[in-house]
Design a protein that fits this description.
The protein is an alpha/beta fold. It has helices spanning 26-35, 37-52, 70-77, 94-99, 124-128, 134-145, 162-173, 195-200, 202-208, 212-218, 230-233, 235-240, 247-250, 294-302, 316-319, 321-330, and strands at 4-8, 56-60, 83-87, 110-114, 150-156, 179-184, 226-227, 254-259, 269-273, 284-287. Strand 2 (56-60), helix 3 (70-77) and strand 3 form a beta-alpha-beta unit. The longest helix is centred in the first third of the chain and has 16 residues, at 37-52. It starts with a strand and ends with a helix. The structure holds iron/sulfur cluster (2 copies).
């Protein structure tokens, strides 16, 4: 039913990126692994993927590549989807890299995804909590660059250094045809951490959205395919501010699961949503071991989730003061 299904592997990441709130869940993730609850969640993900048979599966974390049974999870789902996207931080040691089950992975189906933030060695320590030196991060990217799997790098366009960042990456990594470039609006993680920044940079986003191919060309990415990113997909909403033009409301593009903070009677509880931009508190709860998967289809068709579209995080670009001013000036 859904084109995309997104799951969150319960495994702490090794980084402390300043823009991210996910690493705050690291102690919880570690505890759930110790208790065996993480296995129940991962088994449920396999069941959901076999049930919905999405064209593409997106796997985030924490850091999924560090989970000791991640290879088994991939083996269990690989015949039930066409493409598997794995989100990784490229922040792990050489020893951890060598322990990864790369030989077990269906690499021809896999795309490793990553969003660099500035890709700037001089700002790296301040941005990542000094967890790993930039040289280790770069070495990991180059190492994965040699793998058969595709590597997609999603760059954020709402800052002035965007073109320079793309150019720097191109020079340092020398991407070949197994690399893909994607442009996105913002890495808006946590409880709307990036909302104010989104509003401040709305005018720049509207301008950049009209020149995405130029940005890639200017930075030397001409020969490497630019993949459609969120900014392309969401342009009807970006331009109009009209939620009825949002693709996520028009058809079942995405189902995404994440760990809910609450558990009931020792059973894990997940939260699911039908698009990436709902406000943090929205969505439905799913109690593993109690609820039926058919309930998820029922709730999608019922459509009550649309009541939260007024607080769409993406829509923040269309309604910001900067955007309103720009429209008035033009008018
Ligand atoms: S952005 Fe990713 S790698 Fe960085 S702290 Fe968050 S979860 Fe970890
Ligand atoms: S919250 Fe935004 S992106 Fe999500 S369905 Fe509503 S309008 Fe679309």
């Amino acid at each position: 039913m859904f084109d995309h299904l997104r799951i969150q592997v319960v495994q702490p990441c090794r980084a402390r990126c300043t823009w991210c709130a996910t690493h705050l869940k690291n102690p919880l993730f570690a505890q759930l692994n110790t208790m065996g609850v993480a296995d129940l969640i991962h088994d449920f993900y396999v069941e959901a993927i076999r049930y919905f048979r999405p064209r593409e599966v997106f796997i985030s974390g924490g850091e999924p590549l560090l989970h000791p049974r991640f290879g088994a999870l991939l083996t269990a789902i690989k015949d039930h989807t066409e493409r598997i996207h794995i989100f990784t931080s490229y922040q792990w040691s050489v020893e951890e890299r060598e322990a990864m089950p790369l030989a077990q992975m269906p690499l021809s189906k896999i795309v490793f995804n990553h969003t660099p933030i500035y890709f700037d060695p001089t700002r790296w320590d301040a941005l990542t909590g000094e967890c790993f030196p930039f040289s280790v991060y770069l070495d990991n990217i180059r190492y994965f660059g040699q793998l058969e799997a595709r590597k997609r790098f999603k760059f954020i366009i709402n800052h002035e250094d965007c073109v320079e960042e793309l150019r720097r990456f191109h020079q340092m990594v020398e991407p070949d045809k197994r690399f893909q470039l994607s442009l996105k609006v913002l890495n808006d993680q946590g409880d709307g951490l990036g909302r104010e920044q989104m509003k401040r940079t709305a005018t720049l986003i509207h301008q950049r959205a009209r020149e995405l191919d130029d940005i890639a060309q200017q930075a030397g990415w001409g020969k490497v395919g630019r993949k459609m990113g969120s900014i392309d997909q969401m342009s009807p909403l970006l331009e109009s501010g009209d939620v009825s033009r949002c693709g996520y409301r028009q058809r079942a593009i995405e189902l995404r699961f994440a760990l809910d903070r609450k558990a009931r009677n020792g059973r894990p509880v997940l939260r699911y949503r039908y698009c990436p931009y709902f406000p943090p508190r929205s969505g439905h709860r799913f109690h593993i071991g109690r609820d039926e998967l058919s309930r998820i289809e029922h709730n999608y068709r019922k459509g009550s989730y649309r009541k939260d579209c007024h607080a769409c995080r993406f829509l923040a670009y269309c309604t910001s003061e900067a955007r309103t001013r720009e429209t008035k000036d033009v008018g």
